[in-house]
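Morning!

This is the sequence you dropped in the shared folder:
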Amino acid sequence: MFVADATALAQRAMYNPDPRVVGSTYRPYSARVYSRHALNHAQVLRYYGSNHKEISPDTAREHVAEIRRNVDAFGNEVEKMTALYSADPEAMKLIAAIRQHQKEAAAHCGMAEKECAKHLAEGGAVAQCCSDMLKHLKAADEAHEQLLKHLRVPVPMEGAKK
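The structure's back. Tokens below.
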């Protein structure tokens, strides 16, 4: 095989990835990552707000920006899953629950953003926004885990050989 042929094959592989990695497994995995990152940032910010009367606006805005980015990305991935599983009524029921909780979490994120826009964010208010947000993020995560089980999509790394 010539070098040019090998390069062409490698490029084709890049643009036509293994179907087991994209679509039916990639979107659920990707959504899970965004969901978990949003959860982690919300937990950290809630803890910080719970333990300080006022919190640094820079720190608060940094975490809220990451929560927003991940909540929005999570919503985008779930939206893409709608097209993949539209023929499966149980999957669509779970996706609808995920989407509802994701939207509620996004609304609470907006409240946290408003609080963090102040000169000094009040710790208790930020902690409350994060607590409310976490309820929905956790509910969305639970529904997402049910979706993965329903679709028989293994959790990343659980099936890896050790």
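Headline: The beta strands are 54-55, 121-122.

More detail when I'm at my desk.
O.
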